[in-house]
Amino acid sequence: MVVVARDAEDLDDTVARPPKRHDAGVGPMADLDDTITVQRSSATDAASAPPVEPPVGVDPPAPAAAPEAAHNVWSQPLPAPPPPFRMRLADGTLVPLDQPVYLGRKPSVPRIHPGGTPLLVTLDSPQREVSSTHLELTTVGGTIVATDTRSTNGSVLRMPGAEPRTLIGGESVVVVPGTVIELGDSNLIELLAPDPDAATPAPRGALP
Prior knowledge:
This protein has about 210 residues and is mainly beta. It has one helix and eleven strands.
């Protein structure tokens, strides 16, 4: 492999190898003393070799049968995704959590986000207690993750069976259905379990 230095600074780490010494009167063929010669059989020799016959009375192995399509894992349809969690806003609006959700007074998608197509939910905040982008809700591995997006006042979490706590400073926490999140200016977000009456989505097609 030949490494080409990009600039003069690359040469600082290059180790210079001294040229090989040759005795006077000795030609280049002297280098062959350190050469290992590997003799390869030609294609003619391989073609002229007699075929290997199986022992007498022993049948050659049968070729392996191709797996049936019904047993091929790549031909099977992918399982249907489970119904998504939901959130309920203060006015009763239900929003499925099947994509990242950003809530705030004037929410925007951050430069780095979990992926997918985010949903922006604008909240009314006459006293400006809610930050522009206040809270992020995502579903990760069958759980709901609430993340404060470095809001000014934080978000008060009221989880079932636990004392209220304030989420602030970019902190993330796993929350459960039944949790109520207070963002300010009477904006309450209630997290709900998947709709039990929701129709199960059709299975996705098999991988190509």
